[in-house]
Amino acid sequence: MITLHNLDQSRGHRIAWLLEELGRPYDIVRYAREPGTLKAPPSLAAVHPLGKSPVIVDGDTTLAESGAIMSWLLARHGGERLLRTTGDAGFDHYLFWFHFGEGSGTLPLTLLHVLAPLAPASDGLTAAALAQLHRALDLAEDRLTQSACFADDAFSAADIMMSYPLIAARDRGFLPGSATKIAGFLDRMESRPAFQRAIEKE
Ligand SMILES: N[C@@H](CCC(=O)N[C@@H](CS)C(=O)NCC(=O)O)C(=O)O
Asked: Ligand 1 in contact with 39 (CB < 6 A)?
């Protein structure tokens, strides 16, 4: 059995969603954020020294970092249909967007979160982070004018990775009204039965 250690309102949703798409049984151990700081509780660091969510325990293996966990689960638990590999037309796009989802796509959102309480002292940095975020959103919008999903026209694990920063940007009011492709993509992702089942289970 796979165990997902998941902090409330976190990237751990990606992992529950993937496990639902894969049809794999799993348990969830839930952690509440610390009041005031919204940090992870110390008990999460007892599971993995990073002390952040998500973490999975799969047999003898304990793994953190959502991208690493996704790759592990796809490789070990029948993820072929959600992967693109060498020889697939969308392989380069798959790799780019799979990693962009936790790299350049999420970094400006994290910076904006950290900088918000420091305003106005951080106004210059906030403007720089906002510019990076808008560049990332423009790139994503442009990609979705070329294909229905990030790797190609069919759903893949890159879409799960990308949904986290796009949902966060939309819910925090950063998604411009002109980003109609992203808005439509998120509607499609959020209406997937596996996405909904993951939310119910969390
Ligand atoms: N790059 C890591 C980021 C992990 C991360 O920052 N998780 C957040 C939840 S979305 C967290 O645990 N925050 C609480 C804390 O940092 O104390 C991943 O993709 O797993």
From this structure: yes
